[in-house]
Amino acid sequence: MMFAAPLALLGLVALPGILLLLRLNPPPARRIAFPPMALLRNLPAAQTTPRGIPLWLLILRIAAATLVILGLAAPSLHQPPALPGDGPVLLVIDNGWASAADWQQRHDAAASLITAAARAGRDIAILATAGDAAGTAPRITGVMTGDAAVQIINAMQPEPWPPDRTADSIALRGAPERTRIYLADGITDGAGFADFLKILSPTRTLAGPNLPPLLLPPHLGPDGSLIVHLDNPPENARLTATNANGEILASAGFSATGDAAITLPLPIAARITALSLQGPQTAGGTVLLDGTMHAALVGLAAGSNTADLPFLGPLYYIRRALPPGSQVFSGDLASLIGAKVNLIVLADLPLTPPQQVIVRSYIAQGGIVIRFAGPITSADPDPVTPDPLLPGDRRLGGALTWASPESIAPFPPDTAFAGLETDPAVTVSRQILADPTRLAPATIWASLTDGTPLVLGTRIGKGYLISFLTTANADWSNLALYGLFPAMLDRLAGLAEGGAPRPGLVLPLGSALSAFGTLSPATGSIAIPAGRLATTVISPAAPPGLYGEGGVSLALNLGGHIPPPQAAVLPDATPFTGPAAVNFGPPMIAAALLLLTFDLAISLLRRGLLAIPRLAVLALVLLPLAGHAQSAALQPTLGYLQSDDPATDQMVDDALSYLSAEVSAHTSAQLAAPVGLDPAVDDLSLFPLIYWLIRPDTPAPAPAACAALTSYMSHGGLLVIDTVGGDSGDAGSGAAFSPGTDAALARATACLVLPPLSPLSPADVLAHCFYIIDDFPGRFAGAPVLIAAPAARDADGVTPVIVSQNDWAGAWARDANGTPEQTPIPGGDDQRVIADRFGTNLVIYALTGSYKADQTDVPALLDKLGQ
């Protein structure tokens, strides 16, 4: 126990005087009836003195005074450890990216050490090992008092780059001998750490208990999923995918090997702007995404009916050369643009004048159009090309020509193909020629060894138009048969809005990533050539963030751009996360005030100024408890099946809590807080509705749980089975979706006895039991909602089960501040409103059944529905 204000303890000397004053307590007042004669008759002749107070009341008042004095002295436990040595103290603090994960504990440890030095009368000097954003190298401050050192520590923040060990060593070489205390981040931060530690020679070393986690660069899986590896994963770590507004689109757990995969429909996956670890955000636990990390939505169209013919058709080779994970659509030009693909490949397809206008508008809005030549387009080239083309074609090789097939020359440095190695085995024997009189040199992205252009490209608005002057099959060139072809298409697929720019383009820092994983507008004039970003090392001169402007943006993350984190060997290191100081001052003063309040009440009672019957006091205490018990017994409660994922359970609990509050606010039903259930243990009959969210990794329930759920449905309960898939299927018929068509749903419900199911329609009671709605979206929209077929419902016509893929909980979930936790796709807040209304209908339907189906309500409902 120690005291921050020990002089306040002198107040204890006054306790004897306080005791003397407390003993002078006047006797209680007496009621004396008038007239005055009776008053005079009862007056005692002898002079009286004040009577002493009871011992217990005297002890109470002395205790209150003692608590006030001790509280003002600010007693606390866990005083700072004694510092070694004497004289000034040099405090060396790692404040690089790895320190952000435990920055508060690091700050508290530094403040505790400074307090200990100040009490010992020792001055402080501080060395922060990471350079600042202005590029100033680390340096040791001058010696200062404890108050000044605390101000510096309070203003210090972690930096989103590693410490500069070389500059740290230089700063330490000229420093005078002092007691040196090192607050380490626990990793080596690359070369130079051994020399730094040797020069530092710390008297004491403190380090955090865990290595900092680091997300490595993601890559696309074969199915278009984003796969990320995590170094030093914390226990139960989860990965979240967020959009530009910070709304969570998906989450996933990490495998035993430290890998996590985010799988979403490609239109939704294209909205992901960042991947991060759940919990406290750090730069090491955040990966920013740009256009190059999104799987492409590719539309294919050709001017021939045999375009997909194996080994002969041009689309046959294009399909196999597209980047991994690409989602491919085929059709006419109008349907492809309507499908919102971000890349269209036209294989020997001429364009009519109206189509030419549509294509140019599509490109200007950020689309990519790649055109391949062929016999059809070579006869009469249309003007939708980077440069005008000549009719006809040029033939190289063959019995009637003198020329031989030409190979491809090295790619120019300022094009999308810069850096790709050409293959001398790739040759072109036939091509369309660009008009040399109107050819712009900047549009030539690839040419043959004789200088003839082979690929033309230009930017139109936010998008690009690229023309291959040869075919996409082996008729005019063998390009489609070699690995250079998919490499070229991969570069072009990255040219969508926000995608890969020309390597020589200099990109300014637009948004900077802080050490705590937050993006903010960049200040200063930092810029890096696009071609160097892949090999750039994170530093104050190249901080992490988004680089680019004008629709072109590339992400620079810590993972892959800093030395791999390796545990540092720190002899005699001790944790700095010791027990925090416990200040007893405020609780002591609060206890004193409570005792004085009790003393006041006793005084008023003894003087007859406060008369409260004891039974009334007891009733006031017990009445709220009784009312609470009664309301808890009478209020209906929603239940949900617990999973083995705490994050999922929390999201579902938030969703049903919000839904319960909405129902309580807008209807006469008053719902209690939702309850997580284990069907194998809990009594399900107490809950009118049970929600079950099935994830891709949801295991099949135990036999006892399956039996309980089946019994629950057969005895009047409503089981709502939902998934997070968002697979719209055939929204019109409902035939594309059933519990057997979804693998996770089929596995989880295989042991249940489900009735025959049919699609929910707007004519069913569930669609108008409170709100009248004709759509039933959740976080996703379009998937049919299945309920029991009419013949399989109970005697009142109520379904025992509802099955969907719309993720209603994702649309309902709000955090403690009422902020939505996830974003409905594609309708946003308007879709969320409909989801909330459908949730209200679900609860009312579970509570009241099919009373709205009574014939007395039919005319009014038909009138509302306009029928």
Describe the structure.
By secondary structure, the chain is α/β, with parallel strands linked by helices. It has five domains: 1-79 and 586-610, no CATH class; 89-212, Rossmann fold (3-Layer(aba) Sandwich), CATH 3.40.50; 215-293; 297-493, Rossmann fold; 637-864, 3-Layer(aba) Sandwich (Rossmann fold). Helix content is 27%, strand content 18%. It contains 21 helices and 39 strands. The strands form nine sheets. The protein has a seven-stranded mixed beta sheet, with helices on both faces. Strands 34-33-35-36-39-38-37 form a seven-stranded mixed beta sheet, with helices on both faces. The longest helix has 22 residues, at 585-606. The radius of gyration is 38 Å and the shape is flat. The termini are far apart. Mean pLDDT is 82; it is low at 620-633 and 727-736.
* CATH topology type of the largest domain: Rossmann fold
Shape: flat
List unreliable stretches of 5+ residues: 620-633, 727-736
Question: Counting H and I runs of at least 4 residues, what is the number of helices?
Answer: 21
β-strand amount: 15-25%
CATH homologous superfamily grouping of the largest domain:
Domain of unknown function DUF4159
* Terminal CA distance: 80 Å
